[in-house]
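Archive transcription. Copying these from loose printouts into the bound notebook so they stop getting lost. Printout 1 of 2:
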Amino acid sequence: MSASATRTRSLTAANTYTDVVSVTRKLRADILQVLDHYGYFSADCAEDIIHDLRLMIDEEILDSVELTWRAYGSHSVLAAFRYDVISGDIAFADNRPGGIPYRPDLKNARFNVVVGYNAAGRKLSTTDKQSLGFKLTWGPAGHFDYSAGSWSSDRYYVSNRIGLQRLAFNRASS
């Protein structure tokens, strides 16, 4: 039995599926670290999230994904990690995944995985998106307030011409 490591696309020069898998394995490690810290969702749900994000990256419809924490009843973000999709000639070193610290104040926070589609992704209808084989239903995220902090570059997950830049949201001390 043999398997092909490349999926072809008619619209753009394709990244190899192996590169997409390599990059999303690091995102998977981060999501599993969140699961280990807080237990917000099941391991099966974490795998479904990664499956869908891998599809979005492979289909070139994802701009970013955020892991966010908010206090219940509030739009104010307590903490977040954003992963911006980067492609082309990437001049950044590939970093190890993880390093998401446990914070006791986030144990009872509201956790969300927020997907940001690029222009191609925003043009797809809900039916078109579901026909890609998503395991989860991705709906509107609502309002998130980032005014109480700032973003800083944290890590890069890179494989050849595809990658994710991880940014950390740091809430200002009161």
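Printout 2 of 2:
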Amino acid sequence: MNIKRLATLSLTVAAAALCSACVFAPPINTVADSNELAKMSQQALTTCGSGNVKEVSAKSFSCK
């Protein structure tokens, strides 16, 4: 009976460990990405207005 509980506990801990993996987004490290981010930032300011930009990435932006 104890071996069965230990096996169940081991499987549960292993499943939890596998499901809790970190998601890593690499930083912007190329000149092209930096240029795209700068262009998108300018477009976001033009579209949303100063102080109304919520988030900007190299490919999109959102307003508040």
